[in-house]
Write a structure and sequence with these properties.
Belongs to the CheB family. It is found in: Cytoplasm. This is Protein-glutamate methylesterase/protein-glutamine glutaminase. This protein is an alpha/beta fold. The protein is about 40% helix and about 20% strand. Helix 12 (about 315-325) links the parallel strand 13 (about 305) and strand 14.
């Protein structure tokens, strides 16, 4: 008996996009478009009728804005949503807001040659739909929710590093880790799978929310405490040494595990240059990028954490790392930040003895 197909409902005011999404999705053996809608009001009735597994949603539509609809949907009937919009490319702030509201992931429409462009990344669309179907829908954090109570900074040397990798669901997971960190936390380096043009807005948004300084990494800059450095969306981020200092290096080499930036590239460089001075964390994400790198970090003497299945949006990358033996501990998302501070403090005490 064959497995049931993933049921997809496509919501877009463009008839061309609706037709292209239907063509791409129905060409896959494991999914099908059960209905299409030109706006959220039509979609609301179709959701009740077809009970889709995944909703693809445009942002700019008549009668109701896509973000308004998403907010209501995630409050009343949480379900996996993949944003598909031209605005997610030009307006990264819109994309980040959609992810905050509970969307699993996003895909930008090509700006030119829409038909060929959509067909060219048909497999990517299918992969993101598969990941969304396996994801755990989550409600957005309330706008008026209190900021996390800041954690106490550990007394450690300036060489201590916290290294984070993430993919699908990672933007909100990273925020959950960074928000409670104290202003003088150890330096962080972060690779989040995200296309070019989005990571700067992501860093700026986090910088407004966090006590630490969050920025997009620049080639050759010193890696210092109280700062988080996010890999640009079109370059690998690496750790390097310059005399007694750690520095960030950007590499425009080919994709690794089909990603640039790649988590494995960052983790491998940390294993080479930091070893026991680093603590690695692999958060929610589709695929296996970062699993081998986390193992290499652990083999180099780093403490390594993997996010547990229950708190992941997609339990792909952490699962692979755990299976390989790359994680010295498996922790829930809410425990990552306090555990990082505790491990940094314990490591600092051990180094001073």
């Amino acid at each position: 008996m064959s497995a049931a197909k993933i049921k997809v409902l496509c919501v877009d005011d463009s008839a061309l996009i609706r037709d292209l999404m239907t063509e791409i999705i129905n060409a896959q053996d494991d999914m099908e478009v059960v209905a299409v809608a030109p706006d959220p009001l039509v979609a609301r009735d179709l959701i009740k009728r077809h009970n889709p597994d995944v909703l693809t949603l445009d942002v700019e539509m008549p009668r109701m804005d896509g973000l308004d609809f998403l907010e209501r949907l995630m409050r009343l009937r949480p379900m996996p949503v993949l944003m598909v919009s031209s605005l997610t490319q030009a307006g990264s702030e819109v994309t980040l807001r959609a992810l905050e509201l509970g969307a699993v992931d996003f895909l930008a429409k090509p700006s030119l040659g829409i038909r060929n462009g959509m067909l060219d990344y048909g497999e990517l669309i299918a992969e993101k739909i598969r990941a969304a179907a396996r994801s755990r829908p989550r409600q957005a954090r309330r706008v008026d929710a209190p900021a996390p109570v800041p954690l106490k900074a550990p007394l450690v040397s300036s060489e201590k590093l916290l290294i984070i990798g993430a993919s699908t669901g990672g933007t909100e997971a990273i925020r959950a880790v960074l928000e409670p960190l104290p202003a003088n936390a150890p330096a962080l380096m972060i690779t989040q799978h995200m296309p070019g043009g989005f990571t700067r807005s992501f860093a700026e948004r986090l910088n407004k929310l966090c006590r630490i300084t969050v920025k997009e990494a620049e080639d050759g800059e010193r890696v210092v405490p109280g700062h988080a450095y996010i890999a640009p969306g079109d370059a690998h981020l690496k750790l390097a040494r310059s005399g007694a200092n750690y520095v960030a290096r950007l590499d425009s080499g080919p994709p690794v595990n089909r990603h640039r930036p790649s988590v494995d590239v960052l983790f491998d460089s940390v294993a080479q240059h930091a070893g026991r001075n680093a603590i690695g964390v692999l958060l929610t994400g589709m695929g296996r990028d970062g699993a081998q790198g986390l193992l290499r970090m652990r083999q180099a003497g780093s403490m390594t954490l993997a996010q547990d299945e229950a708190s992941c949006v997609v339990f792909g990358m952490p699962r692979e790392a755990i299976a390989l033996g790359g994680a010295s501990e498996v922790v829930s998302l809410e425990d990552v930040a306090p555990r990082l501070m505790a491990l940094a403090a314990a490591s600092g005490r051990a180094q001073r003895v």
